[in-house]
Amino acid sequence: MPANAIHWFEIPAIDMDRAVKFYNQVLGYSMAHFSMHNCTMAMFPCESGVGGSICKQDDFLPSTQGSVVYLDCGPDLSVALAKVEPAGGKVVMPKTAIGEHGYIALFLDTEGNRVGLHSGA
User: Fold this and answer.
1) Mapping DSSP to helix (H, G, I), strand (E, B) and coil, where does residue 81 land?
2) Best label site of 36, 69, 70, 119, fewest CB within 10 Å?
3) CATH code: domain of residue 78
């Protein structure tokens, strides 16, 4: 059995500069984008064996429906969540307790994707 059920994820983007700026502002990353095959990508930090990226590709469009990716936002979800709207996104579910598993929240990014945040506090 693999250590993680998720191995890789991609979040679609229409405007890569805008998408990279949004995630850099909200999560404190320093992502840059690059071209690979038929898409432009910007990779999220990957130290745990699970990786992912923002991806611009003609047949890959943002959506508020379907699968939701939850990003680890550090020890306190409130810090990242407070940056969502100033960075151009919209909070659609506030910080919500999930028992012993910590907290989650949902937002719409600048591209129109529904994305989750997760933290222990």
Assistant:
1) helix
2) 36
3) 3.10.180.10
